[in-house]
Amino acid sequence: MGIVGQSIALFVALVVSAIIFLTSNGVHIFTEVDESAIYGEWVEQGVAPYAADRFEVRKDGIYMKGARTTSYFEFTGSKLIYTVGNNTYLYTVENEQTLQREKPYHYSTPFEKVR
User: Fold this and answer.
1) Distances (CA, A) of 2 to 7, 61, 63
2) Reading across the β-sheet that carries 67-70, which strands appear in turn?
3) Contact 19, 29 (CB under 8 A)
4) Are 103 and 89 in contact (CB under 8 A)?
5) Res. 96: pLDDT tops 70
6) How many CB atoms within 10 Å of residue 11?
7) pLDDT above 90: residue 91
8) Residue 29 has pLDDT above 70, yes or no
9) Long-range contact list for 92-98, CB < 8 A, 24+ apart?
10) pTM exceeds 0.85 for this model
11) What's the chain's Rg over C-alpha atoms?
């Protein structure tokens, strides 16, 4: 086997190893995520109702106060990520009714799905 054959074999071994590592650590590589699971209105918990952040996830984007603030978001099944202006928002899915805000970093707070 020449240098080309060895390089191809090494590349294949690396790709297979990466796939095995990711799947064994719970990363879903080849499964399609049902985005509709994240759709709905989410309200911040643990703060006064008048001060609570709230947002709505729809098929066509993220809405705040009834207005679409961004048309692009990413939902991996375990994380929701979107950007508004210079702020990136990151939420970790705790369960089907609760998200935990991880970014922006000023504080981490839970959000509950209200509808």
Assistant:
1) 9, 52, 57
2) 67-70, 61-64, 54-58, 40-44, 110-113, 98-103, 87-95, 79-84, 74-75
3) yes
4) yes
5) yes
6) 10
7) yes
8) no
9) 93/38, 96/37
10) no
11) 19
Q: Do residues 76 and 68 touch, judged by C-beta distance below 8 A? A: no
At 4, which helix (H) or strand (E)?
helix 3-24
Average pLDDT, the chain: 87
Question: Are the C-beta atoms of residues 84 and 73 closer than 8 Å to each other?
Answer: no
Nearest in space to 80 (alpha carbons), one of 67, 65, 96, 91: 91
DSSP assignment of 22-77 equals HHHTT--SSPPP-GGGT-EEEEE-SS-GGG--EEEEETTEEEETTEEEES--EE-S
Tell me the pLDDT tens digit for each residue of 71-80: 999 998 889 9
Burial of 7 (0-12, 13-18, 19+ CB in 10 A): exposed
Indicate the DSSP class of residue 104. Answer: S
pLDDT, tens digit, 9 for 90 and up, residues 48-69: 999 999 999 999 999 999 999 9
Q: Locate 3 and state its tokens.
A: 């240098």
